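Minutes, methods subgroup
Present: GH (chair), OT, SY

1. OT presented the first of two proteins processed in the latest run. Sequence and structure tokens recorded below as shown on screen.
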Amino acid sequence: MDTSPSMIVEYEKNAQAAHLNQKIVGRTGDLLTPVVEESLADLPKFDIVAVSMALHHFENPRLGVQRLASWIKTGGVFVVIDLVVQDHGPHGFGGATGTISTHGFSRTDMQRIFEEAGLRGFDYKVVPKPLKFVHDGKAIEKTVFIARAQRV
């Protein structure tokens, strides 16, 4: 799910290239509106929800996780891959820089966010090798984590 239709087009291209387009689907929508959009009302319950390198762009990460967690089946898992809290050095490239709401999440941040969303069985691992992002010849490295919790 993304607020940008062009990002859904990219997602669907990647799903098709990976031969997953029959099993996964992208939806345009905004979970952070006061009332969840009617177009999202028919979403089924999911076995897994994954947010990869996007939570730090959510205007309200807690609300976004709570809303997404409400669509997870009992026993289902929520996974987040995102930035570890760092200094406020260069974050990204071009237009994306203006969409950042936080400069990463600590273990404590993610545990609190998941618990407030009613999720349990929390785990958080820092990926040992920083990810390198390259765009127009400019490179930055960022340390990321993988966090997970489960609806019980």
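2. SY then presented the second protein from the same run.
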Amino acid sequence: MSGIRRDRPLFVFDGHCVLCSTGVSWLMRLDRRGLLQFLSAQSELGQALYARLGMRLGDSYVYIDHVGCHTKSDGYLRLAGALGGWWRLFKVFALVPRSVRDWCYDRVADNRYRLFGTSDHCALLRPEERARLVSDDVALRSQLARRKASPHE
């Protein structure tokens, strides 16, 4: 995994995508302990992260934890582990080859705007959910300033 890490998991998502914003709203409701933090890919920090990872904003969301950066199906498996409880059962999909899992992810991701639409930046989030968005993270900025990292190192 990349050299970028976080003690508190961070889910970086497409803030214009209706599917993505709705999913984040749902994750926030599931995460009653407030373990996860969220960052819009369109924010200044989100754009800096994608640039450092050499990714386009539409390539994938990014999930960052104590191990590193994870994208596509690997990120969802890490997220299931972080949510705990019954969500850990989704880790059984790790038995499916990554290429197959990521192919499925890519089909949805490539068509998400057409199928689900777009909205203004994070418009679908309620005010209390918008309050959970990270606006700045000094430790993450410091890591971004170091060396170029790959999401698949």
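Chair's summary of item 2: The helical segments are 18-30, 44-53, 72-83, 98-116, 127-130, 138-145.
Next meeting: continue with the remaining queue.
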